[in-house]
Amino acid sequence: MKSSSSSTTQTATQEKQQNPQTKVSPRTQTKGIDKHIKDYEAIIGIETHVQLSTLTKAFCGCPYNYGAQPNTSICPVCMGLPGALPVLNSKVIEFAVKLGLALNCKLSFNSKFDRKQYFYPDLPKGYQISQFDIPIASNGYVDLDLPVEFGGGHRRFGITRVHMEEDAGKLLHSGNGRYLATLSHLLQVDLNRAGVPLLEIVSEPDMRNGIEAAEYAAEIQRVVRYLGISNGNMQEGSLRCDVNVSIRPIGQSEFGTKVEIKNLNSFSSVNRAIDFEISRQVLLHSQGQGNSIVQETRLWEEGAQKTVTMRKKEGLSDYRYFPEPDLPEVILKKEYVNSIQNSLPELPEMKRRRYENMGLSMQDVLFLANDINGADVKLATNWIMGDIAAYMKNEKVSINDIKLIPRELAELIASIKGGTISGKIGKEIVDPAEIEKMVDKVLSENPNQLEQYRAGKTKIQGYFAGQVMKLSKGKANPGLLNKILQQKLNASS
Ligand SMILES: Nc1ncnc2c1ncn2[C@@H]1O[C@H](COP(=O)(O)OP(=O)(O)OP(=O)(O)O)[C@@H](O)[C@H]1O
Ligand SMILES: [Mg+2]
Ligand SMILES: [Mg+2]
To answer: Can you say where in the cell this protein is located (predicted)?
Structure first.
């Protein structure tokens, strides 16, 4: 119900339930490993790129709109033309400080930009402006609660660093070649995205399975949405998670060789790609071929449900990082940081603890905290004091007797707010008084049919139900309608 709303986040589990096409088990591709898998432990760390929703790019005045015609939002700076000079967009700093604080990081009051050099057709300058040895934020953590269906449990995952950088352009391939242009196929470059600001969040290698990784990604999405610094949309690439996976035999303290996986555009692909990769590595290891696990970037193929080699990973020294000479140092003032700290909204973890303290079940807590707005408190109060109180009075029951649970009320209110159902329909779902009136009307207007019913033709109940439904213009809740109708018929015979 809520997955299409951009203001709504979901847990990795909820997403999985909504994607029935994701049923293929990656395990089927690596049969025979089940007996080995318990002998190994997986180590997972995640790099997340968050595309910032600033009005203009990081170092020039071009706007960025996803889906715009290729190369319609470019200028000499983001095209990397010789002599063009970057000017930093101050919103990038503000958003970076917000995220750094939200992820409980230590801020660097003096940081700088560096050039990370590599050749790729989507990078016209031949280098990416990034931050190397002094990231704007580091040493933080994120807290989350695993969904109840996975045994629940609180987790804290370390955040190594958060740094600012610019995005590259996009390559458009036509023909069969996947990564590089061949003579027989055309490679086009769209530079609209070049220079769009990103924050890269690097986690500590603290996750141990696909579920923890997917829940971590979902929490990062919630945090950036709560902060209002990104739309966090994975399908559009505004939130990109690269997962690093290695395995080690249980009991070994040093880490194994890590493999980086890209092209994960949903939480469930994060989960499934990790499952697959763990199986692949365990299989190799258990067959004595551990050496063939090399440090590389692999690509998740959604169709085939497997990871394939993309490229060998560059070593750090290959990038030849050096300080960006065209941009000044980034100096943060205490007052500036304080004012941002004071303007932070309530974050998902705070909201979860608040709801938990109100006595809600963890399932309800997670459901409510997934939504940026939570349940609308005012609407919820109106419902409880209005229609629900009236229903309780009418039925002479207490709040403990009615079957409405907090999550259902929140779902109902969210549907009304989101326009999925109208307030009128919403009302009739829990307002038996109106249905009762309509039932009375139908019964009194159909004395002959009522007579037949009393004479034993109980099938005619369906006819009455149909008439009431018609009278309500289809808005009566069928369950409630039948219950009331049954009561009335019993009373009259
Ligand atoms: N042995 C390991 N197994 C699994 N994950 C690891 C291991 N060692 C490091 N990691 C994780 O891999 C990620 C490395 O990210 P980082 O950005 O530091 O480097 P990179 O991927 O080599 O660089 P680049 O930004 O160029 O992709 C981190 O999240 C870290 O926790
Ligand atoms: Mg990486
Ligand atoms: Mg990285």
So the answer is: Mitochondrion; Plastid, Chloroplast
- DSSP tag of 430: H
pLDDT at position 26 is 46
DSSP bridge pairs for 344 = none
**Which residue positions in the chain have pLDDT lower than 50?**
1-9, 16-28
Whether the Cβ atoms of residue 278 and residue 272 lie closer than 8 Å to each other: no
Domain covering 357-492, topology = Arc Repressor Mutant, subunit A (1.10.10)
User: What CA–CA distances, in Å, run from 221 to 176, 274, 405?
Assistant: 34, 19, 27
Closest-approaching ligand to the CA atom of 244: 1
Residues with CB under 6 A from ligand 1: 43-47, 202-205, 244-246, 255, 258, 260
The preferred substitution site among 48, 115, 130, 202 for testing ligand 1, maximizing ligand atoms within 8 Å of CB, is 202
Tens-place pLDDT, residues 221-261? 999 999 999 999 999 999 999 999 999 999 999 999 999 99
ipTM given for this complex: 0.97
Does the pTM exceed 0.90?
A: no
> How far apart are the CA of 92 and the centre of ligand 2, in A?
21
pLDDT of residue 390: 80
Tens digit of each residue's pLDDT (9 = 90 or more) over 74-127: 999 999 999 999 999 999 999 999 999 999 999 999 999 999 999 999 999 999
For residue 235, count CB atoms less than 10 angstroms from its CB and return exposed for 0-12, middle for 13-18, buried for 19 or more: exposed
Measured from the alpha carbon of residue 116, the closest ligand is 1
Atom of ligand 1 nearest to the CA of 319: 26
Q: What is the CA radius of gyration of the chain?
A: 28
Structure tokens at 1: 């119900």
Mean pLDDT for the chain overall: 88
Task: Identify residue 360 by its one-letter amino acid code.
Answer: L
Considering only CA atoms, which residue is closest to atom 28 of ligand 1?
45
**Contact criterion met (CB below 8 Å) for 211 and 188:** no
272's tokens? 């499934």
Q: What's the rounded Cα separation, in Å, for the pair 154 and 145?
A: 4
